[in-house]
Amino acid sequence: MKRTLRAMLAAVAVSVVAASVLLGVRPAAAASLTRVTGFGNNPTNLNMYMYVPDRVAARPALLVMVHYCTGSASGVFNGVGHDYVTAADRYGYIIVLPEATRSGQCFDVSTPAALKRDGGGDSTGIMSMVAYARQRYNIDPGRIVVSGFSSGAMMTNVLAAQYPDVFSAAAAFSGVPAGCFATTDGSLWNSQCSGGQLIRTAQQWGDQARAMYPGYTGRYPRMQLWHGTTDTTLAYPNFGEEIKQWTNLNGVSQTPTFTDSPKSGLTRTRYGGTGNQAPVEGLSFAGYGHSLPLTGMFPYALTFLGLDGTSPNPTPTPTPTPTPTGAGAIRNVGSGRCLDVSGASQANGTQAQIWDCNGQANQQWTPTASGELRVYGGKCLDVNNRGTADGSSVIIWDCNGQNNQQWRFNSDGSITAVGANKCLDVRNTTANGAKLQIWSCSGGTNQRWTRT
To answer: Which pLDDT does position 181 carry in this prediction?
Structure first.
């Protein structure tokens, strides 16, 4: 088994070097990658590195970038993941790079501690790194994402399953489903999984992921999955098993809603949506092994993860995107009716709805610098019970500064609930009294608003 493991690791290292050559990467300045110590609970003695570009966006995204077996933070930074770094320079997001320190430099996605939220495995230390970054920078909580390669792709699946309330999206290059590598003998290698021999139903895979965070009922991150058809390190059947798992977790059909071939040999399938940020997206490369990503792949990942969503070339001392000021009505584009507090009530828990615009106090909303939408002076538009699932109701409540009362106005007219990273949505109808909820952003007119 040890000889097999060493051979597997060697294959991974060779393939990553090959991918780096294909990408034509150039080493970055050593000073650009910074070691961080004392970042919090770190039970498995991981190293933490950060990349903070010279020009940080006013409200930057945060990318957790996870290396492959035999790898390192500097290796992935200067090599196969370097396109993520150059994009950070352009779009102003921050990168956290965990580094495994055990022999072989693989991440643990196998032991019971590793496969439980806050269980004391590698994922616990990685989440301490995320918390460290969030404490020190004005991170957009709706754009915390993770991406990894090989062992890092396996960890990407695990992090997204264990911390679905933190990560909004993930992109896994040549991985396996969350929990597939589970072992009971202390080994970090599962030959049955790596060989593509663990075949389960979508429900079984979904349940295995849900067991990592028992009792959670909210939404799961959208997931982008990449695999080569001739991969012999983490065999190609794992790609289909990942799709089963993440379609189940996201509550969408395993039947693609969209299929195309944007490049020769590449088949792209989307599930639960047809746009660039569908709930699940699979990218299958004919004739390629454990050598992803290849030249030209990163733009797909950047768009899916939402990392290219800020203005290019942010200024060294950026100012936030202007927020509407002053009290005023907020009109729904699809219905022509206004955001309204039902019955003009001022009671906590009163449902928000749409109603004919009338200029009364229950339709006068004041955005604040902290992202609130205030009505009556001291009440805030609020996602009920801090919900993150599609269909969570929108009410008013005493303003309290929590992220379920923070809203972001977007250039397309949508309004994002920051805590859930979902859109303010009119439920089912355009009639007076139609209730408001949050829902996965779709671009529909029932999710578009104008200030009047």
So the answer is: 98
What would the two tokens of residue 280 be? 């699940």
- CA distance linking residue 268 with residue 160, whole number of Å: 21
- In angstroms, rounded to a whole number, what is the distance separating the alpha carbons of residues 399 and 268? 44
Please report, in angstroms and rounded to a whole number, the separation of the first and last CA atoms in the chain. Answer: 68
Q: Taking a C-beta distance cutoff of 8 angstroms, is the pair 168, 89 a contact? A: no
Instruction: Give Cα separations from 227 to 176, 267, 338 (angstroms).
Output: 10, 10, 47
User: Going by DSSP bridges, is the β-strand pair 94-99/47-51 parallel, antiparallel, or unpaired?
Assistant: antiparallel
pTM of the complete model beyond 0.70: no
Q: Given CA atoms 142, 148, 152, 154 in this order, what sign does their dihedral have?
A: positive
The H-or-E segment that residue 14 falls in is helix 2-23
The 10 Å CB-count burial string (b at 16+, else e) for 62-99 is bbbbbbbbbbbbbbbbbbbbbbbbebbbbbbbbbbbbb
What would the two tokens of residue 215 be? Answer: 């009792």
Query: What's the half-sphere exposure (Cβ side, CA atoms, 13 Å) at 404?
Result: 19
Cα atoms found within 13 Å of the Cα of residue 400, Cβ hemisphere only: 11
The residues of the chain scoring below 70 in pLDDT are 1-31, 310-325
HEC secondary structure over 80-118: CCHHHHHHHHHHCCEEEEEECCCCCCCCCCCCCCCCCCC
Catalytic residue check, 342 = no
Q: Which of 150, 194, 335, 440 is catalytic?
A: 150
Q: For residue 325, what pLDDT is reported?
A: 55
Residue tagged 């929108």 (tokens): 394
What domains, with CATH codes, occur in the chain? 2-305 (3.40.50.1820), 330-451 (2.80.10.50)
- Secondary structure of the chain: what % helix, strand, coil (to 5)? 25, 20, 50
pLDDT score for 390:
86
Cα separation, 421 vs 191, in Å, equals 37
Mean pLDDT for all residues in the chain? 88
